[in-house]
Design brief:
The complex is a heterodimer of chains A (about 280) and B (about 300).
Chain A (H helix, E strand, L loop, with lengths): L3 H11 L1 H20 L1 H5 L4 H6 L3 H6 L9 H10 L2 H23 L1 H5 L6 H28 L11 H5 L2 H19 L5 H21 L7 H4 L18 H23 L12 H8 L1
Chain B lengths: L6 E10 L2 E11 L4 E5 L6 H8 L7 E6 L8 H5 L2 E4 L11 H12 L5 H10 L13 H13 L5 E5 L7 H16 L3 E6 L2 H7 L2 E6 L2 E6 L1 H6 L2 E8 L14 E8 L5 E8 L3 H7 L4 E7 L3 H10 L1
Parallel strand pairs in B: 3-7, 3-8, 5-6, 6-7
Antiparallel strand pairs in B: 1-2, 1-4, 8-9, 10-12, 10-13, 11-12
Helix pairs in contact in B: 3-5
Classes of the chains: A mainly alpha (about 280), B alpha/beta (about 300).
Amino acid sequence: MPGLTTEFRHTLRRLRGQILGWGIGLALYGLLMGAMYDAINNITGLEDILANYPPEMMAFFGDRIALNTPEGYFGTYYSSYMPIIVGIFAAGAAAGLLAGDEERGTLDLTLSYPVSRTALFWGRWMAYALATALILFIGYLGWAVTLPMSTMDVTWSALLRPFLPLWAVSMLFGALALLLSLILPSARMASMIAGALLVANFLLAGLANLNDNLRPIMDVTPFAFLQSGEALNGLNWGWLAGLTAVALLLSAAAWLLFRRRDIRVGGERGWSWRLRLRER
Amino acid sequence: MTTEPALSIQGLTKSYGRVQALRGVDLEVNRGEIFGFLGPNGAGKTTTIRCLLDLIRPDGGTARVLGLDPQANSIAVRSRVTYLPGELSLEANLSAERALRYLADLRGDNIDWNRVRELARRLSLDLKTQIKNMSKGNKQKVGVVQAFMAPADLLLLDEPTSGLDPLMQQEVYRLVREAQAAGATIFFSSHIISEVQAIAERVAIIRDGRIIRTLDPHELIAMSTRRVRVRLREPLPEGTLTAIPGLTLIERTLIERNGMTLTVQVEGEMDALIKALAPFPVVDLETERPSLEEIFLTLYEE
């Protein structure tokens, strides 16, 4: 497909600063938390301290506050926050993949070259998917280097497992941002809404532990299928495939919209698609 | 060589919400022709060009580019066409060379990099400079280089000399003529009459999304009135200019040392006025070109 590899390489090059910035940040945090595993677990009376926490707070974090286990520690201090952190990158980068260039006016010239919209879309999408994976992998390396130095009984391959659901859920919210960027007037608005939904889902996941009435809603959201520290003991492949499939479906919907889209000229933002619908 | 027109547009319409940008554009551009597309801002020039590249989809009508439907054969069309956007935007963090290499990769062919360097030299463009550090004129030069770096059957140039100084404008005109000599068709939009006169062989005038007229660019000036100011070393005898058809005397001023200035309005060609003035010592002669709006007024009056 002409232009696919060019767009892939070009987008990856554009994202390289973010890959390094976000990746190194995550790696340093992983390094810190990995190195502190023994110190935290050796705190005398830690279980008593946790037992004295308000029950609402304990419930908010679910059953993960078993800090003396690798999955409890990893889930509480690392992987439960990661969807928010990586999701911010994912939503911002995905919303800017096409609509950002369109708003800057650079897409006009790019699409005057013999590259199909399909090649341009999927070339950029693949680079973005790889960039998200690379950020998580650099983050993984930060934690992985601490394993030989701690008593955390986890292999390197087992440590890699929780990063897969993290990637899938980041891709899902990224794909949502990408789809919204082709519907809403601006890329920034799309990333903000996708980001807000991500944070809302994170909060809902905690609140559903406090209020059973929220459970039915929570059960149909992406975070219900996100394995945190428990993925260290084994992956739920069905959940992982489900999250990935939804991400792909949202991306495919964005691709269909992009194929039929009137490319806006630089600086143009608006609700023209709504006006057209109203006129019909 | 095929005789099919390079561009054939019939009844092209396009709306943005309630704004009707094109109201039925009909146009035909022959192969190997330099064709000017003249109109004020917002007339529909850019919208027409963007429909030809499948960047936007028309609501109605048909367009054929090099004999192909630009929607059904989008890639085939774009592989034979180069484009210079009217509002050129390039990735700010790239150098000119990196931006051009990316675009060359997209074209897929092996672009002759010596050609790129030659174009940069002719346009006095430093390829190492980052786009974000460039002036508007230099960014436009990058746009010109990308439009001319690959061999093309058709060049779609949307206001190609925008932001360029007069010397560089002349260089762009030379590039256009060279492309034509190499067999390409050039379709360029402009709102500058002198530019259209300088290079176009035919010109279509568009206003409010409709083609008003297609004509020879020299007719543009001939069809409109111009103000001419003549300074003579000695007073002109009474009645010298009265017989010239289409001439109206606006002002006649005697100046020191028996000289005189005359301001007249001329409709059509200047030939009769120049011949009438030939026996007299003319110190200076200035003509004011008609504005695009004046030409439109003339066309509407017709």
